[in-house]
Amino acid sequence: MPRVAVITPTYNRGANGLLEKTMLSVLGQTYRDFVHIIVDDGSTDNTPNVVDKYASGDKRVVYFRRERTPQQKFGASPASNYGIGRLEEFPGAEFVTFLHSDDLYAKNNLERKVGALGAGTDLVYSWVGVFDRNSAIRIIKGPRKKEAADIASYIKRRKLVDFPYHTLLMSVRLLEKVGGFDEDVGYGEDKDFSTRVLDELEGRAVEIPEVLHYYRAHEDTIGQFYRQNGLVDNDLNYVFRKHCPSTVNRIVNIFFHPQNFMPEPIQKYLRVVRDKIKSRNHQFDIDPFVMQIETHKTEAA
Question: How many domains does the chain have?
Answer without folding.
Answer: 1
